[in-house]
């Protein structure tokens, strides 16, 4: 972010991307779960975001379509195609933080997922590449928008009418 110009600065790259909040169930730990925000650029399948949520997350809804958050000293931001997409993502984040705050569950079967747009889809046959088979990934919510963190910069890809721009904010 360049405070002298009053906004996010464009970076190289961009492209329409899809962001998914995954619940990562550690089966060897009796249902303990982490939540991961995963962003993948649609054009070339490049992973542009891997962010593990923590209960200390600071989440801000700046506008109906722009949200940003901070975990530790890393900043992230998303611009959504619609306010409805942003609201659904916000609900997914709040649900994830609530589950994280409650700690490990005795069984992942006890987890209830609301019927308000958060389908819990088991991906038993589609493990994320590079992961061991002791983890199960279940999408909580999925939307077209993405962020990326590089070095000392937090970045955001702004998605509007299918066009995207990548922005950065030095920490």
- What structural class do you assign from the helix and strand content? mainly beta
Q: What is the number of helical segments per DSSP (H or I, 4+ residues)?
A: 1
Helix content: 10-25%
Computed Rg: 16 Å
**CATH hierarchy: architecture:** Roll
**N-to-C order of helices and strands:** EEEEEEEHEEEE
Strand order of the largest sheet: 1-11-10-9
User: Which range does the strand content fall in?
Assistant: 35-45%
What is the CATH topology descriptor?
PH-domain like
Class, according to the CATH hierarchy? Mainly Beta
List segments where confidence is low: pLDDT < 50 over at least 5 consecutive residues. Answer: 106-137, 143-171
Distance between the termini: 8 Å
Mean residue pLDDT: 63
Name the CATH homologous superfamily. Pleckstrin-homology domain (PH domain)/Phosphotyrosine-binding domain (PTB)
């Amino acid at each position: 972010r360049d405070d002298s110009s009053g906004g996010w600065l464009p970076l190289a790259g961009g492209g329409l991307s899809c962001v998914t909040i995954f619940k990562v169930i550690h089966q060897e730990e009796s249902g303990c779960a982490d939540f991961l925000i995963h962003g993948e650029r649609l054009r070339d399948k490049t992973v542009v975001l891997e962010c593990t949520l923590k209960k200390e997350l600071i989440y801000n809804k700046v506008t109906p379509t722009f949200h940003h958050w901070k975990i530790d000293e890393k900043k992230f931001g998303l611009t959504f195609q619609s306010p409805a997409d942003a609201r659904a993502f916000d609900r997914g984040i709040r649900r994830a933080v609530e589950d994280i705050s409650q700690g490990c569950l005795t069984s992942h079967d006890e987890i209830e997922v609301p019927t308000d747009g958060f389908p819990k889809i088991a991906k038993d046959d589609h493990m994320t590449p590079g992961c061991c088979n002791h983890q199960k990934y279940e999408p909580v919510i999925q939307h077209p928008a993405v962020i990326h963190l590089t070095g000392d910069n937090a970045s955001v890809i702004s998605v509007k009418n299918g066009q995207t721009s990548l922005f950065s904010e030095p920490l």
